[in-house]
Structure prediction request, 229 residues.
Amino acid sequence: DTGVSQNPRHKITKRGQNVTFRCDPISEHNRLYWYRQTLGQGPEFLTYFQNEAQLEKSRLLSDRFSAERPKGSFSTLEIQRTEQGDSAMYLCASSLWGQGADNEQFFGPGTRLTVL
Amino acid sequence: GENVEQHPSTLSVQEGDSAVIKCTYSDSASNYFPWYKQELGKRPQLIIDIRSNVGEKKDQRIAVTLNKTAKHFSLHITETQPEDSAVYFCAASEQGHTDKLIFGTGTRLQVFP
Prediction:
């Protein structure tokens, strides 16, 4: 499968624990986005990378959230001291950005986080 | 910042009928408007998109129209089939800047055989 992949697909954790999710984009894609989706809502932008540089973070993103893309390929999203309000589907998307590129965003299957 | 509103929130149609979903956006700098289809438990899938330099785009039974002056765009599905049943999301972004997608709240489409 050459699409965007995410691991784990499901994560159940207790409040106060730290969790880390991984996203592997489509191999030639230079942009990688993280979104969060709660039940009945559209995806909400969290942050994005161009290669290894994190170019924007949503103002809604608390200091407990951090994301990295150290080699410009896969990315990780870490949530520290999880709260019940962090329960959601965390979606990753990737795109090819640049001259002549469509920059269409392709989504991964998501990681569903449940905080007890 | 950008805000996208989507209507209706639910839409039920008989197989073979047409379905129309409408979205409005607030930021006149937005220039890219994709539509995603999300089946239950699945990832959002891009079904069609339109850029601000065109007013209409069609792909088989699906079409999208854009009115830049009024800042609204619509998805039209003709000859609906039961497999069209899903949640549809519109989105807007300013390509060439951040490209982050701002999504609407979704429309649950049910097509009855």
